[in-house]
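Hi all, posting the design record for the shared folder.

TITLE: backbone redesign
STEP: 1 of 1
STRUCTURE INPUT:
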């Protein structure tokens, strides 16, 4: 079959593939501990569900809405961003999308030409590189030489060419939980402005920050940096709304206008009922966000020392945000007689029914990603099984 060149370069999502295998095993009745998920394990807060039901009952959801989102939702987004970031956007600078994933996809589609280069700090979320390829761009991985998972201006400058068009930053970062400091972001932001490189700032985990760490934004550093930045956001993680599929992008209205045209031809509006739920999420009580955050923090503080004790598992400092641990398991893989992390993960799933994600798709093959978006009981059980697996116990 003569497929499009851009599509044939793209790899399937490793996290979704693993999730699918773990779900299949669960439906077969196997006692799977799934630590591969990129989603909170909580029910969407009740007030949000109630708002959705109310909108259905009021007959508000059967028709199309504006392709880039309900005006009331855009207002709710603008108000939330003002509270969280202290920065004000106009409605014309906002597009609502089918998840943050599609906000990112749309931004890349409207900005990239064939061969344009995009700098992606490694490790990075699996979809960045593939979405860049889908838009005809060339993903350029930039590793942190300090080994702290945070790239510096010097590292970015070394990777910059006259084809560099964009950089994708993600803080708190999936899969490491690392947060860039304000100084880091100021330096990177100024460098991007100076070199006319557009910044995509994926802030989807901004509320999930632990143990006194603080989230820092790019868009409130300077007006020049704000103008150079497309903010990608969504409700999936903070409000436990992955299934509702609501994300959004904010940025220069020349860009959001074209993103809106693309959305109009691609998906049309995000599902109407989800938009009403999103209005409640953003404008209603925020206590549930804090309850979930505290629960993630407690799990992190419990599992981090347990995982650190597993022979051959190397963990850096305790992560500051998101809900993942990224672990160098090279020694554990070799000591258990495997040659690749993928084979190790596959055997772990098949023999101990524990699902974790191999690091290759995040750009680091010697690592695994463990999600602590699972109940404390599941986490403890999963860690016991991993420990037994590494120790060669049946
Ligand atoms: N950005 C990052 C860093 C993510 O980890 C994810 C989901 O895993 C997304 C974006 C996409 O989120 P959404 O569910 O809003 O599409």
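Okay, here is what came back for every position:
SEQUENCE:
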């Amino acid at each position: 079959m003569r497929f499009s060149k851009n599509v044939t370069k793209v790899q399937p999502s490793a996290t979704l593939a693993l999730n699918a295998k773990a779900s299949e095993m669960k439906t077969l009745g196997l006692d799977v501990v799934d630590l591969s998920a990129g989603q909170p394990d909580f029910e969407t807060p009740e007030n949000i569900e109630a708002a959705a039901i109310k909108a259905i009952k009021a007959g508000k959801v059967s028709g199309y809405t504006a392709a880039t989102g309900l005006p009331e939702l855009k207002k709710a987004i603008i108000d939330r961003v003002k509270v969280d970031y202290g920065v004000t956007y106009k409605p014309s600078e906002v597009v609502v999308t089918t998840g943050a994933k599609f906000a990112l996809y749309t931004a890349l589609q409207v900005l990239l030409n064939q061969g344009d280069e995009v700098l992606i700090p490694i490790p990075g979320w699996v979809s960045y590189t593939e979405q860049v390829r889908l838009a005809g761009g060339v993903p350029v991985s930039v590793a942190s030489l300090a080994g702290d998972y945070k790239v510096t201006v010097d590292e970015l400058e070394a990777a910059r060419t006259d084809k560099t068009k964009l950089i994708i930053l993600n803080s708190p970062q999936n899969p490491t939980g690392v947060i860039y400091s304000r100084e880091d972001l100021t330096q990177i932001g100024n460098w991007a402005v100076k070199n006319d490189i557009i910044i995509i700032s994926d802030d989807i985990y901004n509320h999930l920050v632990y143990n006194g760490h603080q989230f820092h934004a790019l868009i409130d550093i300077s007006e020049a940096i704000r103008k150079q930045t497309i903010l990608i956001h969504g409700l999936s993680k903070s409000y436990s709304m992955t299934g509702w599929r609501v994300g959004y992008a904010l940025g220069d209205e020349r860009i959001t206008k074209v993103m809106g045209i693309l959305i109009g031809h691609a998906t049309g509006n995000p599902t109407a009922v989800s938009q009403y739920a999103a209005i409640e999420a953003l404008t209603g009580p925020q206590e549930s966000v804090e309850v979930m955050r505290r629960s993630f923090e407690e799990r992190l503080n419990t599992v981090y020392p347990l995982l650190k004790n597993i022979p051959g598992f190397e963990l850096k400092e305790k992560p500051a945000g998101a809900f993942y641990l990224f672990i160098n398991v090279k020694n554990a893989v070799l000591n258990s007689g495997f040659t690749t992390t993928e084979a190790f993960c596959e055997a772990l799933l098949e023999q101990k029914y524990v699902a974790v994600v191999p690091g290759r798709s995040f750009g680091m093959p010697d690592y695994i990603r463990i999600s602590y978006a699972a109940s404390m009981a599941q986490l403890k059980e999963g860690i016991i099984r991993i420990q037994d697996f590494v120790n060669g116990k049946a």
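COMMENT: The chain has two domains: 5-44+287-388, 63-283.
Let me know if anyone wants the other runs.
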